[in-house]
Amino acid sequence: MMPPEAEENINNETAPEVPETEGVEGLKQALDEEKKKAEIYLTSWQRAQADFVNYKRRHEQDRQEFRQFANTDLILGLLPVLDDLERALNSTAPKPARHSWIDGVRMIIRKFQATLEARGLTPIEALGKPFDPNQHEAVRQAKGAEGIVIEEVRKGYKLHDRVIRPTMAVVGHGEEAEKEDK
């Protein structure tokens, strides 16, 4: 058993001291203050919860984007190899004798392109299209329709929806178009 003084000290420690002079009005005021504090705490908790949900969503978007574009450097390293294979095939005679190695190079190029396309790589269609500085890099101008890509010097590519290598293009400056009008 506890002595009565110790029991009284415990009760005093746990119960808040309310002066008897405050009465009912004082209790109502204290209750209103505590309700305001509770509302502030609830609002803060809701805000923190919303921030956390937004953080999780942004984090998942970042992870998904990272997965999509993680191989960008590897693909950029492989594109010159694809360019070389295509140049090698284009340097053969227009109607070459039936050589099995030429068919083999064609098959390798198609397989290479299919593999890259499966990873989200698509070529940028530029020839005959209006010059777009977001997708094309002008290397020079020549006779042709003004502002139209008239020659591809090097193919450009997109990975998913992002340009990873712009098309190097020759753009028409309109001289030929003027001659046709006369």
Descriptive report:
The chain is an alpha+beta fold and 182 residues long. It has 3 domains: 24-70; 71-119; 122-182, Roll (Nucleotide Exchange Factor Grpe, Chain A, domain 2). Helix content is 57%, strand content 16%. Strands 1-4-5 form a 3-stranded antiparallel beta sheet. The protein is elongated, with a radius of gyration of 37 Å. The termini are far apart. The relative contact order is 0.09. The model has no long low-confidence stretch (mean pLDDT 85).
Name the beta content range: 15-25%
Q: Overall mean pLDDT score?
A: 85
The first-to-last residue Cα distance is: 118 Å
Q: How many structurally independent domains?
A: 3
The CATH topology of the largest domain is Nucleotide Exchange Factor Grpe, Chain A, domain 2
Q: Report the structural category.
A: alpha+beta
DSSP summary, beta strand count: 6
Query: Which CATH class of the largest domain is shown?
Result: Mainly Beta
Assign an overall shape. Answer: elongated
What's the helix count? Answer: 5
CATH architecture of the largest domain, by name, is: Roll
Strand order of the largest sheet: 1-4-5
Q: Return Rg in Å.
A: 37 Å
Low-confidence blocks of residues: none
What about the largest sheet? 3 strands, antiparallel
CATH homologous superfamily (4th level) name of the largest domain: Head domain of nucleotide exchange factor GrpE
Name the helix and strand elements from N-terminus to C-terminus, one letter apiece: HHHHEEEEEEH
Helix content: 55-70%
